Amino acid sequence: MEIELIEGDITAQSVDAIVNAANSSLLGGGGVDGAIHRKGGPDILAETRKLRAAKYGRGLPVGQAVATTAGRLPAHWVVHTVGPVFSATEDRSELLRACYINSLRVADELGAASVAFPLISAGIYRWPVEDAVRQALTVLRAATPATLRTATLVLYGAETAAIARAVATT
Ligand code: AR6
């Protein structure tokens, strides 16, 4: 699988699946989650409500991933995953890697050829950007998916993109 790093807005990506850094409620929030629901329209929320009712009464657990269609977005699907909140006293990096592993699996099960990720947990959940990139690349570089050909890490803002490029080359 080819891995690309780009600076941009994930809601504008013309890929098969984009990943949403959601919360367990699956009912929307700020950051990339807010942008996806705002630009994708109400169909996405209608589907996540159904998923909550049918399967995730207590919410989607941290590290897991689940797909909906993408409403008005250029992508076909949104894969919703819940990153861990960063902790300075507890190593939660396995849960962060699980977000990438499970999102890749869900996208692959959908038959997607391309998937785009935001930097999960690196915003409101306060994960340090450098390590968030490292965790993401560890999983993406080790992945051997069936249908996916390209994974794009979409970095929001020039500063984050510069840090990510530096991490990727070390
Ligand atoms: N495109 C790409 N990346 C973005 C975009 C965008 N449009 N908007 C923000 N980012 P965050 P988290 C970057 O906070 O830390 C929500 O309320 C952002 O700069 O979106 O996992 C959820 O509902 C950062 O680098 O997600 C949860 O409650 C990265 O995406 C909580 O936030 C992730 O930042 C999840 O927090």
Q: Residue ranges: pLDDT <50 for 5 or more in a row?
A: none
Radius of gyration: 15 Å
The CATH topology: Leucine Aminopeptidase, subunit E, domain 1
The major pleated sheet works out as:
6 strands, mixed
Helicity, as a percent range: 25-40%
The molecules bound to the chains, other than polymers, are: ligand AR6
The tally of domains stands at: 1
Average pLDDT taken over every residue? 98
CATH superfamily: Leucine Aminopeptidase, subunit E, domain 1
- Beta-strand content estimate: 15-25%
Counted by DSSP, the helix tally is 5
Name of the top-level CATH class? Alpha Beta
Distance between the termini: 20 Å
Shape: globular
Give the ordered list of helices and strands: EEHHEEHEHEH
Widest β-sheet, arrangement of strands: 1-6-5-2-4-3
Structural class: alpha/beta
How many strand elements? 6
State the CATH architecture. 3-Layer(aba) Sandwich
Provide a quick synopsis of the model.
It comes from Actinoplanes sandaracinus. Pfam families: Macro. The chain is of the alpha/beta class and 170 residues long.
Overview of this protein structure:
It is a single chain. The protein is of the alpha/beta class. It has one domain: 3-Layer(aba) Sandwich (Leucine Aminopeptidase, subunit E, domain 1), CATH 3.40.220.10. The chain is 38% helix and 19% strand. A six-stranded mixed β-sheet has the order 1-6-5-2-4-3, with helices on both faces. A hairpin with a 7-residue loop joins β3 and β4. It is globular. The two termini are 20 Å apart. The mean pLDDT is 98. Bound molecules: ligand AR6.
